[in-house]
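seq as requested:
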Amino acid sequence: MRYLLFDQIRSLQQVGHDVSAISAAGPYVDWLRAAGIPVTTVPLTRRITPLTDVRALLALVAAYRRIRPDIVHTHTPKAGLLGQWAAFLAGVPHRVHTIHGLYYPGHMHAGARWRYAWLERAQMAPAAILLSQNAEDMETCVRERLCDPHRLRFLGNGIDIERFHPRNREPARIAATRASIGVPPDHLVVGMVARMTGEKGYREYFRAAAQLLKTRSDVTFLAIGPFEPWKPDAVSEAEAATFGLGERLRVLGNRYDMPDLYAAMDVLALPSHREGFPRAPMEAAATGVPVVVSDERGCRATVIDGESGFLVPLRDAGALADSLQRLLADASMRERMGTRGRQLAEEQFDQKVVFARVAAAYDEVS
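struct tokens:
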């Protein structure tokens, strides 16, 4: 709600919608309420917790009956599954769901595919309109018969291209940010921004960093994102230390100064295994920073290979290291790709376009 949907909610309010939010309890509930967004908390979890999930379903039904919304719009798999069916049970007349990224990749083992396909179908079934951030996910939905294709609409993803802007890369500002996180003044900076999990590609990132540091010592690597120790593929700070990067790695955790941190980078890496439409490469591109991402659905939509950055094979730390080295060794290439990335952001990543598509979907169902 705070970081992915706040601007969207504000936009909907500005065009006349009365928006309430329902989420799990968390540190930003009071912040959202103070910003003028009514928030109801229910016992939602990301994990499969049958008893808690039943309580969450009942709490959602009760919340809908109290609020009596015309439209329920759900996000994320768990909230989508429970939120859509609770809306159906509560008699909410119009239901919309955003597909942020299917948990149904083509490389999934056959034994698991049917379960995820069933869950995706169950999640999508009550919705009148399905907004997909990723065009490839729409193709998968049609090919695998996950939903009625007539309910699918392309949404895309967007960011605030004025907040993330090349003007942030003013030399004194870059120097101050780098000094604040302990980067030597003569170093190049590679950053990764993602939750600290294996699925995001952190282990490949650290292996690539170790490979690069064998041939050059003038690079500092940043790892930015929240720790999620409850995840089975969680990457801890202690594990990060085992890759032997020493002082050349800065593990920064969750940060709130991302415009400055992107501006302080020379390259952004995101070797993620699965994405819907990741924000970090969009934000870096809008700032004028070239990106290197995995050649995987979602990630592919954020870069023009060879123009604004590079695509590298999935789970290939060696290829990641090679592409990073190409950029680190060529300042003119970084500048050229950064300029093209900003153009791409202006053409395709402006969140105002996404907000207009959401509003249009509401008009369509109601």
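The mean pLDDT is 95.
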